[in-house]
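Reopening this one. Same input as before:
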Amino acid sequence: MNEHDPDPIEGLDPCLLERFDAAGRTGPPELDFLVAVESRIRRERRIRAFVLGAFYVALVVIAVLLTPYVAAASLTVAAAISGWAPQMGPMLLTPAGFGLSLLAGVWLLRRVGVLGR
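Same output, byte for byte:
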């Protein structure tokens, strides 16, 4: 060939060209392969959904089991606060007292760095 004759494959790796030719001749993947991949994906999604559901059920069971202890602790804290400052006891039972205690809790959590700024 002379230098004026354009050769599109000149300078390319012959092994690479053979692989491209072989890939072009084989065509799309077989249907059985696609069905197997799809069934595997569906099975993995089912397993993931089951594990996530089991996690949520376990979380709810733990929350139900811990509720009496959390309620008792909150009553103990309320009793301690009302013993420390008797005028604050009845105030904690009002909506305004709840709002103020909520604001105080958020302020405390931000102060110690639990809540982001």
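So the earlier flakiness isn't reproducible anymore. For the record, The chain has four helices and no strands.
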